[in-house]
Amino acid sequence: MKNSIYKFKKITFVSFVKTPLRTLWLNSLWLIALLLTSTISSAQAKISLEKAIELAKSNNIDLKIADKEIEKQTVLKKTAFQADPLQVQYQGGQFNSVDFDHNVSIQQYFPIGNITKANRQLQEELVKLAEKRKALSSYEIEKAVNLAYYQYLYGVSIQQLNSELNEIYTKFLKNAELRFQTGESGNIEVISAKAKVKEIETQKAQLEYDLAIYQKQLQFFVQTDENIIPDEKTVLKYATIKEEGNSKAEGLLTDYYQQQISVYQKETNTYKAMRTPKLGLGYFAQSINTDWLFQGFTAGLQIPLFGGVNSAKAKASEISISQSQLALDKSKLTLNLQQQELQNNFAKQQKALDYYQNEGLQYADQIISTAQKSYANGDMSYWSYISFLNQAIDIKKQYAEATHNYNQSAIELQFPTIKNN
């Protein structure tokens, strides 16, 4: 199974521009986004993460292909007994006298020794190997669903932040218009406030498209025709960290390679068993001087005098055993090093998120509240107000990014990438 890499589009919350955009263009874009949102929302069904994973494991085509492989290898167990084709021969002519006589014979060779048992054991191990491959695929699909699910929730959080900013700047616009009407400020404040509000509305339209993309990513991994979306009541912070994350990955990896080793061991036994003779039994009936019926039986052995080919194949399978063991050792080392790296990154992202949850967001809310009151009371200049507002907004943006980075690192820690060849 090849290493799977899942890439997701990341929302960028751009800074507010100073130049106003054309009102008609903004209204058109907003209308398109609204229609798109209405169309999608009307047919969307909310789903929990657990249900999404369950559906993915029952619907995913890759897992269905894996099931067919298991089914195929199970059917091939019936090929363990491999007898040679029945030989039927007719002979006619003057082989006994001057009379024209007839001879009919049949002969069948059967495998003897351990070859049938070896074939059956090999096929049983191949069935188990197909099951181990499916387990790896299931693991990767579960990881992909987790990533896609929380990617959508991240988009929702950015959308909520956009709504909050829209509310803040709408109030700012009203204050600016009031100050302009009373002569306390110039028209530049009103123009700038309008530009910022329109910019936020434009971003809202873009975020609707982003959410549509994230929804399709989730739907792709679940592989359903239904337009499913994550339940927005789900806590944004990924909260299913389990200590056995690394041990589960290592267990799947070890099981796969050990099963591969078992296959090569049985394959070696099969090639060795091919060096044993085959037993043949036959029957014949013939005429002598045109008189019928003279009959008899034959018995014989097929002895593989030149068994070097099967010996070489058995030796090659033994080498494959060593290769699989080395590959397992390498994969375990890679997994352990990866786990240490993921653990460090997770601790880093957790520390950043803790700051914004415990302090950063409170600072942002205090800055916004204080700045709005001061500006409304005329105790703060326009440019100071904008400066403080941008600082608070930047903190909220960084919190959303910190949460997203935390979720990504937590999922990677829970599902470290399994690299196997």
Automatic annotation (TrEMBL):
Q: Which GO terms describe its molecular function?
A: efflux transmembrane transporter activity
* Coiled-coil ranges from the UniProt annotation: 112-142, 190-217, 330-359
- Alphabetically ordered keywords of this record: Coiled coil
- Presence of keyword Translocase: no
Q: Key word Oxidoreductase present in the record?
A: no
The source's domain of life comes to Bacteria
Protein's UniProt name: Outer membrane protein TolC
Question: What organism is recorded for this protein?
Answer: Flavobacterium saccharophilum
